[in-house]
């Protein structure tokens, strides 16, 4: 089966290809809506040094990069979770009692992205309840701003955490994600349907014809 004959076959099967794309897009959309949390709250934080007198630009940059790494990893720690609970904004039974389950649930709920060059931490909290998402984010913000010294070494007054934006509460999945899921599902469905059509067509062809049109280096 030559490439041109394959294209001709697929052109005659556009209806099947379109249907395959629609079905896969529908499955992808349904899966996304079922598996995604309903709300997310996000904030951006800037990590800066408050006593930077006498330090050159490179030293400040490396220090900001290091502190951003430390704090971004600290957010996933058990000590940070305890500090969040100690704010009193979240019920003590909000997370599982088992340590491993608690850490796993926290990692599923909280995501951290870091821009080391700028010293920016972008924190996102996902939850099915908008109030809980807002409370968790408020607690994280309080710990980062007021208690960041618990998760680093050095002078307690040398680091300052500033809020750049947020908290921004929005429903999920976002329109952009939905469009990406639909587009990816549709294209995957077309590709899958194309493969199935090609295989079924080749199965119905005369074996001698297939052998004669097969490249020489692939013939048995």
Descriptive terms for the model:
alpha+beta; single chain; 8 helices; 4 strands; four-stranded antiparallel sheet
Question: Helix and strand layout, with pairings?
Answer:
Elements: H1 3-12, H2 14-35, E1 39-49, H3 57-74, H4 78-86, H5 99-109, E2 110-115, E3 120-127, H6 130-146, E4 159-171, H7 175-203, H8 207-212
Antiparallel strand pairs: 1-3, 1-4, 2-3
Helix pairs in contact: 2-7, 4-6
Structural account:
This protein has 220 residues and is an alpha+beta fold. The protein folds into 2 domains: 3-33 and 183-218, no CATH class; 37-172, 2-Layer Sandwich (Alpha-Beta Plaits), CATH 3.30.70.1130. It is 55% helix and 17% strand. The protein contains 8 helices and 4 strands. It has helices at 3-12, 14-35, 57-74, 78-86, 99-109, 130-146, 175-203, 207-212; strands at residues 39-49, 110-115, 120-127, 159-171. A hairpin with a 4-residue loop joins strand 2 and strand 3 (120-127). Helix 2 (14-35) crosses helix 7 (175-203) and helix 4 crosses helix 6.
Short description:
With 220 residues, the protein is α+β, with helices and mostly antiparallel strands. The chain has eight helices and four strands.
- The radius of gyration is 27 Å
Q: What is the arithmetic mean of pLDDT?
A: 78
Q: How does the major sheet shape up?
A: 4 strands, antiparallel
pLDDT < 50 stretches: none
Give the class-level CATH name of the largest domain.
Alpha Beta
The percentage helix is 55-70%
Tell me the number of helical segments per DSSP (H or I, 4 or more residues long): 8
Morphology call: elongated
Number of beta strands: 4
């Amino acid at each position: 089966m030559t490439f041109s004959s394959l294209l001709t076959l697929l052109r005659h099967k556009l209806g099947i290809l379109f249907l395959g794309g629609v079905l896969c897009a529908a499955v992808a959309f349904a899966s996304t809506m079922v598996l995604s949390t309903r709300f997310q709250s996000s904030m951006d934080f800037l990590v800066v040094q408050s006593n930077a007198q006498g330090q050159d630009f490179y030293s400040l940059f490396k220090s900001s990069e290091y502190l951003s790494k430390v704090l971004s990893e600290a957010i996933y720690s058990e000590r940070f979770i305890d500090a969040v609970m100690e704010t009193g904004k979240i019920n003590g039974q909000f997370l599982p009692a088992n340590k491993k389950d608690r850490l796993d649930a926290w990692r599923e709920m909280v995501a951290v992205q870091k821009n080391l060059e700028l010293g920016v931490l972008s924190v996102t909290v996902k939850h099915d309840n908008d109030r809980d998402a807002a409370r968790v984010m408020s607690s994280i913000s309080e710990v980062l701003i007021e208690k960041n010294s618990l998760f680093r070494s050095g002078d307690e007054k040398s680091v300052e955490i500033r809020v750049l934006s947020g908290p921004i509460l929005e429903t999920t999945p976002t329109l952009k994600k939905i469009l990406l899921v639909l587009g990816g599902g549709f294209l995957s469905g077309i590709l899958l349907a194309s493969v199935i059509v090609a295989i079924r067509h080749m199965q119905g062809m005369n074996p001698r014809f297939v052998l004669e049109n097969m490249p020489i280096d692939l013939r048995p």
